[in-house]
Model the fold of this input.
Amino acid sequence: MITLDGKHGWVISYTNKHNISGKVVEEINNGDWTFCTSIKPEWDVDKLTLNINDQGYRGGVLCRNGMHSGIFNVLWPSDDGKEWLRFIKGEIWYDTPEGETKIAVLETRVGGGGWIDIMLSYNRKEKTLVLETREELQENWNTQGVKIDGEIIDYSGSHVWIGCANAFASCPEPQFYQGHIRCLGVFNSVLTEEYRDKFYKEYKDFRGIAKYFRGHAHKRQVYNFEAMKPLAFTNFKTSTPYKAFDFSGNGNHPIIYKREWGVY
Amino acid sequence: MSEKKQSQAVKVKNELSIENQHFVKTKQKLDKIGPGMCLAKWTQTTLHLQTGHNHSCHHPRTHKMDLKEIARNPSALHNTRYKKQRRKEMLNGKRPTECDYCWNVEDNSDRFSDRVFKSQESWSLPHYDEIVNSDWREDFNPRYVEVAFSNACNFKCSYCAPAFSTQWTEEIQNHGAYPTTDEFNSFKYNKLEDKMPIPHREANPYKDAFWKWWPDLYQDLHTFRITGGEPLLAQDTFKVMDYILEHPNPNKNLQLAINSNLGGPKQLIDKFIEKIQRLEDEERVREFIVFTSVESWGAQAEYIRHGLDFNYFWDNMNLILEKCNRTNVTIMSTYNALSVPNYHKLIKGVYDMKTKFGSSDRYWKSALFLDSSYLRYPTHQTVQVLPKEWDSYILKHAQYVDYMGVPLFDHNYIGYSDIEIQKIKRIYDWKTAEWDGKEQQVKEHRYNFGKFFQEHDKRRGTDFCKTFPELAEFYRKCLEIRL
Done:
């Protein structure tokens, strides 16, 4: 688990500078994809900096930079101003056949303050974006979907950000997230229910380099996720002060990124 | 050349031009004299005193030093008549044939060859004018010297040879060459190339010449590195250290490096550490580096390096870094087929030590470096013999080092450097490269792999399958190969 203080994020570079990725995360530009995560956001408005017109708060959970897309948590006042509403959103930008650039937004209201499992997927052939969420102690998943009337905009060269939408100093809207994140998965496929449940059942077990390198491990995927076409997954339990170990076998280790570091 | 290839070549050339202006300038300076000019022929030398051979730059084959020449002029250990002829060729615009490694690079790619890199070094380039204005007959004191005083060694690493190990010499004397198709480590090669090592207890005229030359050489040195054999078993190693410790006017710019397997007797290790401490405390050298070697972890490392007690070795490395707080240690790891199953443990062990001992007091902040190079010879032990399924394992090692790497944007942290990562990536690239006839070559190398380790177990009482259960199935298949 990592805790984000609203001042830094993590990043998986779209390509490895040493060219040692088995598969780069940029592969998601060419096929289906799924983002999985499990988070416990900070919902206390007094502890958050309102970053949407000083009216509400929006944090990037698992995003791609450019025209920010991915999973966000949002705190927004109700119409009567008496309460703060909590949302998880899944968003993607696309070009319509008429040449307009639009955003597709899926959102779900959050009731409690506990952990939330989230999955956002895109089926490129069917052009459908699906957001699934499940709050702590909730058995069933809430599922919403939307058909995209157009083509997703070009995200080539975009990194995958964790805990922000884009931490580069040059970005005016970094949308830093505050709270906890206990896992992430980036897959080059739309996960079926079976695989979704497998990921959320097993991610806690990702740990230990010894298991990863165990004899004959080269003959099989340690976590047997191969059919899910993993690009990166981690639960942050195996980490250095700077990086979390990617157990997908692709070497796409998420790296901590501080805004003051400038451009990566 | 196809259009695509041509444009790639132009791109590479442009990148090189932009990113490496210094190399471009150095190449232009060298080319002004001739297309074969290389300063390393003057500034660098490796002296194998146990066999009487030397070469300047590691690429040309070694050649014999002349006993009559060195009796008259000890600097002829480096300034041999043979080498002076090659210098003459260079100064006259020719390319010496022995330097074909670089000509192959220059003629077949847009990359800089090593003659540019080696001439660019701080021990080379400052001497450009002096060299190009000199007569080819003149002697020149090298600035970067590597010397092996003897082949005395307490180890007989599986990939080593009698020229570098008395233990190997003894084994070959007793049992003969290994039953591989190339008769691995047969003395016939040493005899053919006049490389039979002089027994380390016998008089050695090359060593005598070295000590005559040393007082003159010492003050000019930029880097002095002692190799072997096991240098701690050679009295000359301590003689060098004592010379520097006792010198009234030491060369304080010297980078002194000593190789050691760190497996020698305790009293020698302690003596070594004590002298390093004095060299550091009295600031008699600019930098001191210990080069050592290991290629895996635990029992597997011990099998590869016969004679190694892994825990003793690791403790000694700890001790040096603990007691010598300005010294850096580099592990020269000759990554080979037997390294693959357990190299991740070595990567982790080195990382832990980097974290423990890293400090800005040291010449290099990272106390310990893992310099992974791939074994090229003997061919039966290179990673090429392994089946393709092991390729991903090598890549995973590179990814693992990357995982423990230092992000470029933060220099305060200690971890693996880009070079350490790239060197493992290079091993993967080499392993996965294809060339004509590779399959047939690999078949023979696998045959030899089986033959070598079968004989190894027989002669040395080792058990390959027990030590390398991950490779046991592969080993058995190698034994079934018929050529």
User: Anything to note?
Assistant: The interface with chain B takes residues 16, 18-22, 209, 212-213, 215-216, 218-219, 240-243, 245-246, 249-251, 253, 255-256, 261-262, 264 of chain A (CB under 8 Å). Chain A has a mean pLDDT of 92. Chain A is about 5% helix and 40% strand.
